[in-house]
Amino acid sequence: MESNKRCSFLRSIINKLSLKGALMLGSVILLLVVVSLILRWIGKSNSLYIEENKRIDLTPTLIKSIEEIGEWEFLQLTDEELVDTIKHGFFGDSRLVRIYYGTLRLGFNLHEAEPGWLKQDKDTLRLMLPPIRLLDKDFIDEARTKAFYESGSWTEADKQALYDRAYKLMMQRCITPANIQTARRNACLQMESMMRSMGFGAVKATFAQPER
Predict the structure, then answer these.
(1) pTM tops 0.85, yes or no
(2) How many domains does the chain have?
(3) Are residues 70 and 43 in the same domain?
(4) Domain boundaries, position 25
């Protein structure tokens, strides 16, 4: 009988120890789960504030380097003009017919940009571009000029007058409001694309006023 009491006592001790161990083990597991959740939440929270800064600062040095580009062509126009002239003489008429070839380039010169033409306005980079103009006034290729027909004698002054007429015709044919507008549109697109490639996000390029 005494032996049975001892067994019962030992069994009760073991049961108590098992229950206590189970509670402790459960507490440890619960603690590990809570710690894991906290660490995961902290990791996610930190990721919200970690962002790589790829934006380029708009500094005077950067603006100066862009201005150093100078002339920038946005539209090229090729033209040819057939021009003739006649001189009436006592012994008959003299006639001169020439064909002139020209390449007219429309664009702007960043050296002519107004102070403050490039500035940051909140989240938008704004560009106020200089006016579109004819980049090279010597656009007639005299090496390609052809004498289509020539009779009689002609002075250098006569040939210069013919050249001047061809020059004026090319200007009238190519320097039109429509072509200037096309050059302006190309300029805005290319300048905005260039600035975006440098790391700027929202970019808006405009002109101060329409070219005449």
Answers:
(1) no
(2) 2
(3) no
(4) 1-51
Same domain, 69 and 42: no
Residues 132 and 28 both lie in one domain = no
The one-digit pLDDT tens for each residue of the chain (212 residues) are 555 555 565 456 555 545 555 566 666 566 666 556 556 655 554 444 444 445 567 788 888 888 998 999 999 999 999 999 998 876 778 899 999 999 999 999 999 999 999 999 888 999 999 999 999 999 999 999 999 888 888 899 999 999 999 999 999 999 999 999 999 999 999 999 999 998 898 999 999 865 54
212 falls within a domain: no
Q: What is the DSSP string of 188-202?
A: HHHHHHHHHHTT-SE
DSSP string, 84-151: EEEEEETTEEEEEEEEEEEEEEEEEEGGGPPTT-EEEETTEEEEEEPPPEES-S--B-GGG-EEEEE-
Token pair 């007058």: residue: 161
